[in-house]
DNA sequence: CGCGCTCATGCA
DNA sequence: GCATGAGCGCGG
């Protein structure tokens, strides 16, 4: 039997399967999805088995055997392996990169090189022949290695001063040899556990026979007689206030055993979750739930786009739909944006499904995440709630995939593989005949467009198949054929919930024209109306949420005399002032310097920090409303583990009057006493050079407005802006999704942007501008050539132009954009174009990155 | 990617 | 004449 293996070498030349022989002894272990160690050239690397076959037309002198199987059970399911192939072809990354993205970081290979001594390395009497020819130092090395049995190469080099040549020579002589090991970065956590002897009589008897001075040991035996279950060693020690030696000596007497037992690190172990029962559904919820649950019951691959206004009770619909799925013995995956994976959210799922839920998010430690993942592997859970990568949960019977806040841009991964979790979810669901629910109060244009789109199959049928006839049956052809099913797009079905639960109205939204405020002499960051509203809430002891969305574009530093702006010396970006460290920092490379007091350019002392960050708002609030209690939530205050939760709990307990934060306060929070929401600068996002700016602004304002008046107390929203007439702001203020989407769709169509046209962004970067420009230029030419050759008419090549951030970490950046229509993938074209620049990449250390369906055009 | 093989260049 | 170093192509 042979295995096709994708090796852990992310390079163009190795981005294909290699055949290995599966030794007889391994046959019951090796399966599709297994992690294996294989010899690769002169070294040993990790790889994934993607296929097993018995083809015997392989050159037996070339094929090597698999050297080890890494896991008891394959960490990937066959459908995930297939999905990895699809991801690598769709998003143009190495297949290994896609495979690696599917397993927890803890299982990423760590390569260790160890040195061992050959059996006869000391020669006959140790001082003759070969051995006598060696340097004293080398003899010492051999002795050292021999003593230790096996030494890590690096530590040997360190110990004997770094002369690799000496060791190499010893290896060439056959006195030492190298063993390569592949290790996991993380192992299952083990806890020493005490197992009392089975025989209770024996324990009693032993207790009476122990000498009186062994009082502690007697105490342990008595305790174990009362509590015969296994107990953690530490717990036992703590309970009885004794030392490990006592227990150890009992173990030596054979009265108990101490063993290492694998345990799960449970991040939620210390918390109990109140069990919740299904809530009665409102008519609208009932209808939506009915549609979803019927599709789940029918085991049909369907995609629902659930448009539900904020507070319409989407989560309850999710919970009950999941219950339907579990009742059928199938599993469910719930994706939420990292930022809204709040304890509140987790609580609702744990409360309903208890131990059946695994939680995956980035704040878990490597070990915790690994353990949650293992619960999925071992089928101990049937629901996963997590951020983007949870879409790869190794379930085998998926019935339902829910993507909450489906419009969130964080579902797109910005590093390779640059996949979009929404699209991967649809592909994965089609493998399982599962239902996808995309939920949002502000569905993305892409998803809305999906409700209009005709399925690719229907279109192909209409146009008479692929251009150029049937593809030849090559390996690539076979892969493409396997992808067809995954590329099949069912039209999305739109479900709508217009009403908030219990008929609470959406809060009125007031737009405040900040130009008008300025004209009438108010230079503060608070408009008069918002100021009054906050004051009122303080009086009534109600709470306020304030949003200031800076997205990293916080204050820049400028000299008022000469106009000098502090910039990063390595990136084309302004430096940002950080109050806490009194430093100015680059957001892209981390470069920092001390706060400016004099202008480095003209020597003037008129340095001013422009733009308003959350820190300044906090300061200002303190000045305007003495005694006000403010909680500030942004990246600076929530990096610490658990801090996010801590602040929110404080706010919930009304230990603060105002919750001030960046977009993290806009998502999913639900506090009964919040009656006022203020967006301080609604147009920060609007002014970004991105065709999605209006969409993002509309989404953000709608989301944040949804935080007010969710319970008995009515709410009110103030939106401060310099662009009060902009349609995104007006539509958001009227809670009018329909008018926004109509307007935005029209504009996108007119300007040929997504979702009507699709984009592929190719970014080239290099230290030197001339070479970079030349290469980018020929990249565009090559793309145009290939587009023409392939007869694709609806493909447009734009650029090259300098990227919006023209330099990062001393590397200049240029980009080409491909705009094209329809579902037909043009990845083959891009792949070929990029391939023809392989030599430039290598020779000149040029970097070329490809982003299919980019979310950010930086 | 990392290795070793090849070939060019430099000094005995 | 061989030793040292950067570039190339290969890996099952």
TrEMBL record:
Residues forming the Helicase C-terminal domain are: 591-777
Identify which cofactors the protein needs according to its UniProt entry: Zn(2+)
Coiled-coil-forming residues are none
Q: Where, in this chain's numbering, is Zn(2+) 2 bound?
A: 568, 571, 586, 589
Which positions are annotated as binding Zn(2+) 1?
A: 559, 562, 599, 602
Q: In the Enzyme Commission scheme, what number(s) does this protein have?
A: 5.6.2.4
Q: How is the cofactor bound?
A: Binds 2 zinc ions per subunit.
The UniProt keywords, alphabetically, are: ATP-binding, DNA replication, DNA-binding, Helicase, Hydrolase, Isomerase, Metal-binding, Nucleotide-binding, Primosome, Zinc
Q: Which reaction does it catalyse?
A: Couples ATP hydrolysis with the unwinding of duplex DNA by translocating in the 3'-5' direction; ATP + H2O = ADP + phosphate + H(+)
What domain of life?
Answer: Bacteria
Q: Which SMART domains match?
A: DEXDc, HELICc
Q: Per the similarity annotation, which family is this?
A: Belongs to the helicase family. PriA subfamily.
**Can you state the subunit structure given in the record?**
Component of the replication restart primosome.
Q: What does this protein do?
A: Initiates the restart of stalled replication forks, which reloads the replicative helicase on sites other than the origin of replication. Recognizes and binds to abandoned replication forks and remodels them to uncover a helicase loading site. Promotes assembly of the primosome at these replication forks.
Q: What is this protein called?
A: Replication restart protein PriA
Organism of this sequence: Paenibacillus konkukensis
């Amino acid at each position: 039997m042979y295995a096709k293996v994708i090796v852990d070498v992310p390079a163009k030349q190795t981005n294909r399967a290699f055949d290995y022989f599966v030794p007889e002894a391994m046959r019951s272990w090796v399966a599709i999805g297994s992690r294996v160690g294989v010899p690769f050239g002169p070294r040993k690397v990790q790889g994934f088995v993607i296929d097993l076959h018995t083809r015997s037309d392989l050159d037996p002198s070339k094929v090597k055997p698999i050297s080890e199987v890494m896991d008891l059970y394959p960490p990937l399911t066959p459908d995930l392996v297939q999905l990895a192939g699809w991801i690598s072809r769709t998003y143009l990354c190495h297949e290994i990169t896609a495979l690696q993205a599917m397993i927890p970081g803890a299982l990423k290979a760590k390569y260790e090189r160890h040195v061992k001594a050959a059996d006869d390395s000391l020669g006959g009497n140790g001082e003759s022949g070969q051995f006598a020819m060696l340097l004293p130092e080398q003899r010492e090395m051999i002795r050292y290695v021999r003593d230790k049995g096996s030494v890590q190469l690096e530590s040997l080099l360190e110990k004997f001063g770094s002369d690799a040549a000496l060791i190499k020579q010893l290896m060439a002589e056959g006195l030492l040899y190298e063993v390569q090991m592949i290790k996991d970065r993380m192992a299952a956590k083990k806890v020493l556990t005490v197992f009392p002897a089975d025989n209770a009589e024996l324990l009693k008897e032993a207790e009476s026979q122990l000498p009186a001075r062994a009082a502690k040991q007697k105490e342990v035996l008595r305790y174990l007689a009362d509590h015969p279950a296994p107990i953690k060693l530490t717990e036992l020690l703590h309970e009885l206030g004794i030392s490990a030696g006592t227990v150890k000596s009992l173990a030596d007497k054979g009265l108990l055993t101490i063993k290492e037992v694998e345990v799960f690190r449970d991040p939620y172990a210390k918390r109990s979750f109140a069990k919740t029962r299904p809530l009665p559904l409102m008519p609208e919820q009932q209808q939506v739930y009915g549609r979803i649950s019927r599709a789940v019951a029918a085991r049909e691959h369907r995609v629902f786009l659930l448009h539900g206004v904020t507070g319409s009770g989407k989560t309850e619909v999710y919970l009950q739909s999941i219950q339907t799925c579990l009742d059928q013995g199938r599993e469910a995956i719930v994706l939420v944006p990292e930022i809204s994976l709040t304890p509140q959210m987790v609580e609702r799922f744990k409360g309903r499904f208890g131990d059946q839920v695994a939680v995956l998010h980035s704040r878990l430690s490597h070990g915790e995440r690994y353990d949650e993942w293992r619960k999925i592997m071992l089928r101990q859970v049937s629901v996963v709630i997590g951020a983007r990568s949870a879409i790869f949960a190794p379930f085998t019977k998926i019935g339902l995939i829910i993507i909450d806040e489906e419009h969130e841009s964080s579902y797109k991964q910005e590093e390779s593989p640059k996949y979009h979790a929404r699209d991967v979810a649809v592909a994965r669901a089609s493998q399982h005949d599962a239902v996808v629910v995309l939920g949002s109060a502000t569905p993305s244009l892409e998803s809305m467009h999906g409700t209009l789109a005709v399925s690719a199959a229907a279109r192909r049928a209409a146009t008479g198949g692929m251009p150029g006839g049937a593809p030849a049956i090559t390996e690539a052809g076979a892969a493409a054929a396997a992808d067809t099913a995954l590329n099949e797009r069912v039209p999305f079905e739109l479900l709508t919930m217009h009403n908030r639960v219990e008929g609470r109205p959406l809060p009125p939204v007031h737009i405040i024209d900040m130009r008008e405020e300025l004209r009438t002499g108010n230079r503060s960051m608070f408009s008069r109306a918002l100021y009054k509203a906050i004051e009122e809430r303080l009086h009534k002891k109600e709470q306020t949420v304030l949003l200031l969305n800076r997205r990293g574009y916080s204050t820049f530093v400028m000299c008022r005399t000469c106009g000098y702006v502090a910039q990063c010396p390595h990136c084309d970006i302004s430096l940002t002032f950080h109050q806490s460290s009194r430093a100015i920092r680059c957001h892209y490379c981390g470069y920092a310097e001390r706060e400016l007091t004099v202008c480095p350019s003209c020597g003037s002392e008129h340095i001013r920090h422009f733009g308003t960050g959350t820190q300044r708002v906090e300061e200002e609030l303190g000045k305007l409303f003495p005694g006000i209690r403010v909680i500030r939530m942004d990246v600076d205050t929530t990096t610490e583990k658990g801090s996010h939760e801590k602040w929110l709990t404080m706010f919930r307990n009304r230990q603060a009057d105002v919750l001030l934060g960046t977009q993290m306060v806009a998502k999913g929070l639900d506090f009964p006493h919040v009656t006022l929401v203020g967006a301080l600068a609604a147009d920060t996002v609007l002014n970004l050079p991105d065709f999605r700016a209006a969409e993002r602004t509309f989404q953000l304002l709608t989301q944040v407005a949804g935080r007010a008046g969710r319970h008995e107390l009515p709410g009110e929203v103030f939106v401060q802006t310099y662009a009060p007439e902009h349609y995104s702001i007006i539509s958001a203020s009227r809670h009018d999704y329909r008018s926004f989407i109509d307007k935005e769709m029209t504009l996108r169509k007119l300007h040929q942007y997504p979702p009507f046209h699709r984009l592929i962004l190719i970014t080239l970067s290099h230290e030197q501008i001339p070479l970079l420009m030349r290469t980018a230029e020929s990249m565009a030419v090559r793309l145009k050539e290939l587009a023409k050759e392939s007869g694709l008419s609806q493909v447009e090549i734009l650029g090259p132009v300098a990227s919006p951030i023209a330099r990062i970490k001393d590397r200049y950046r240029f980009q080409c954009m491909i705009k094209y229509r329809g579902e037909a993938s043009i990845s083959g074209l891009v792949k070929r174009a990029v391939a023809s620049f392989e030599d430039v990449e290598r020779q000149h250390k040029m970097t070329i990155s490809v982003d299919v369906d980019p979310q950010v055009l930086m």
